[in-house]
C-alpha cells in the first residue's frame, strides 16, 4: 500500500491540474490510467464545472468523524500547505449547503458527503468497503467519500 503522503500529494495534484469537474471511483481492482492518483482510479468521468482551492476553502468533517478521517483531513491540510503555502481550516460539521469546501467522510455517517456524492452521481458499493473511495470535484466543492478509514486515507 502506498503511503498516505503519496496519496495526499497525488490527490492534490489531481485536484488542481486534472479533475476540475470530474468524478473518480476507485476500488481494489484499479486500472492503471497514468493519472498519478494512489490508489489508481477505476474510473474517471469528466464533467462540466470547476472548483478552485484557496485559503478560505475549509476541510469539513462530520462531528462523528473517525480517527482515520481526522488523520486524512490533517494530512491533506499539511500537504496542501506545503504546495499552496496556506493552511486550510479543518472544521467539524458545517452547513449541508456549505459550497466551496472539501468534504471528507463516510456517506453513511456524514450527510453532506452523501449529498455531494449524489449531486456528482457518485456511489460506493460493498466491493469498495475495504479501501475504495470516490472523489468528486465540481462547483459545489470537493467530496472524498469512503466507507472505511483506509478508503478515506
3D architecture notes:
- The structure is a single chain.
- With 153 residues, the chain is of the alpha/beta class.
- The protein has four helices and seven strands, in the order αβββαββαββα.
- It has a seven-stranded mixed sheet, with helices on both faces.
Helix and strand sequence:
HEEEHEEHEEH
Strand order of the largest sheet: 2-1-6-7-5-3-4
Mean pLDDT: 76
Oligomeric state of the chains in view: single chain
Topology:
Blueprint lengths: L3 H15 L3 E5 L16 E4 L12 E3 L5 H18 L5 E3 L8 E5 L5 H9 L13 E6 L2 E6 L2 H4 L1
Parallel strand pairs: 3-4, 3-5, 5-7
Antiparallel strand pairs: 1-2, 1-6, 6-7
Helix pairs in contact: 1-2
Concise summary:
It is built from 4 helices and 7 strands; from the N terminus they run αβββαββαββα. By secondary structure, it is α/β, with parallel strands linked by helices.
List descriptors:
alpha/beta; 30% helix; 153 residues; seven-stranded mixed beta sheet
Amino acid at each position: 500500500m502506498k503511503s498516505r503522503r503519496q496519496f495526499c500529494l497525488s490527490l492534490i495534484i489531481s485536484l488542481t491540474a486534472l479533475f476540475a469537474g470530474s468524478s473518480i471511483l476507485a476500488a481494489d481492482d484499479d486500472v492503471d490510467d497514468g493519472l498519478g492518483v494512489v490508489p489508481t482510479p477505476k474510473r474517471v468521468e469528466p464533467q462540466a464545472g470547476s472548483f478552485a482551492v484557496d485559503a478560505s476553502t475549509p476541510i469539513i468533517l462530520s462531528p462523528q468523524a473517525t480517527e482515520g478521517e481526522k488523520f486524512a483531513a490533517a494530512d491533506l491540510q499539511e500537504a496542501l500547505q506545503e504546495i499552496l503555502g496556506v493552511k486550510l481550516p479543518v472544521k467539524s460539521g458545517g452547513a449541508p449547503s456549505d459550497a466551496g469546501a472539501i468534504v471528507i467522510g463516510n456517506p453513511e455517517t456524514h450527510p453532506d458527503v452523501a449529498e455531494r456524492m449524489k449531486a456528482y452521481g457518485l456511489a460506493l458499493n460493498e466491493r469498495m468497503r475495504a479501501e475504495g473511495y470516490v472523489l468528486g470535484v465540481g462547483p459545489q466543492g470537493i467530496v472524498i467519500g469512503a466507507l472505511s478509514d483506509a478508503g478515506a486515507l
